[in-house]
From TrEMBL:
Coiled-coil regions listed in the entry: none
Name used for this protein in its record: DUF3159 domain-containing protein
Pfam families with a match to the protein in the record: DUF3159 (PF11361)
Top-level taxon in the UniProt lineage: Bacteria
Spans through the membrane: 76-93, 113-135, 156-174, 180-204
Keywords, sorted A to Z: Membrane, Transmembrane, Transmembrane helix
Length: 220
């Protein structure tokens, strides 16, 4: 049955499952939400102490990093995640404003939105780059006009994900609402990623013409 789905050229269940598996990112999203949650809880339970909140976030970030390294995660990815937590804690300690812990996340979302928009503009949509690389297609997906167009349209969904976070985070940060930022960070991490993956899959499939064999089989 699996062989039949993969070779029918309908771009159906097998493509969808591959797409969800490649981009679901549930583990990464959950990992990313835990240090901010630890910061917010530590800050609140510690009598609004940035030191306690920062220490809790760093401890949780280090524990997650150690666990991921043990599971075979790339050291560079682990280091970058931990560095973001450290920078956020240092900024908050420096300014004395707990809400500033979330500044690196604001910056990363703004930069990510800009990078994704640029990739679409230069006809190298990042969604296609990520999926095509994972499927070991090289540049094959770019030589399929229909697939290139579909990846470009679906990539706008990912731009929207970062924009949504910015629209929520920026007013809360300006208001110094540390507790609300903590909650927003959790809500707009894995749940938003899950919605983004589902909607971008729908946009991708909707953009492909009838009879196209799917993302596993670019027409080159």
């Amino acid at each position: 049955m699996t062989y039949q789905r993969e070779t029918t050229g309908e771009g159906g269940v097998d493509d969808r499952d591959s797409f969800m598996r490649l981009l679901g990112g549930r583990t990464s999203a959950i990992d990313a939400s835990l240090p901010p949650l630890a910061f917010g809880l530590g800050w609140f339970l510690g009598g609004e102490s940035i030191e306690i909140g920062g220490g809790a976030a760093i401890a949780v970030g280090a524990a997650i990093g150690g666990y991921r390294l043990k599971k075979g995660a790339r050291p560079l990815a682990v280091l970058i995640s931990l560095l973001a937590v450290l920078i956020g804690a240092l900024i908050a300690l420096r300014t004395g404003d707990a809400a500033d812990f979330f500044l690196p996340r604001l910056a990363s979302n703004a930069l990510s939105a800009l990078v994704w928009m640029t990739s679409i503009a230069i006809r190298w949509p990042l969604l296609g780059v990520v999926v095509g690389t994972a499927l070991r297609q090289g540049r094959g997906w770019r030589r399929d006009p229909a697939l290139l167009k579909a990846y470009s349209r679906a990539s706008w969904v990912w731009v929207g994900q970062y924009v949504v976070r910015l629209l929520v985070f920026i007013p809360l940060w300006l208001a110094g609402a540390t507790g609300a930022l903590t909650i927003a960070q959790v809500v707009l991490t894995w749940p938003l990623v899950a919605v983004c993956v589902a909607v971008s899959w729908w946009a991708l499939r909707k953009s492909l013409p009838d009879g196209h064999p799917g993302l596993r089989h670019p027409r080159t």
